Amino acid sequence: LTSVCPGQFGVTYSIAAVTNATSYIWSFPAGTNVTAGNNTNSITVTHSTTAGSYNISVTPTNGCGNAASAT
Known about the structure:
- Helix content is 0%, strand content 48%.
- The chain has no helices and 8 strands.
- The strands form 3 sheets. Strands 2-5-4 form a 3-stranded antiparallel beta sheet, with no helix packed on it.
């Protein structure tokens, strides 16, 4: 659960690299725009969403499927 303020920019989220992961699928609240690092384990975003607390999750993936999501 992460607190988000509208207009926040340059916010970075990251997780430790997952062995054999070739991509990472991030899930953000509506109104969040990725500005750098799309599909990597470290991503930078701008929030234009309504202020509040939101779940942000990431799912490591590779050619064999998806690993468990982390929130």
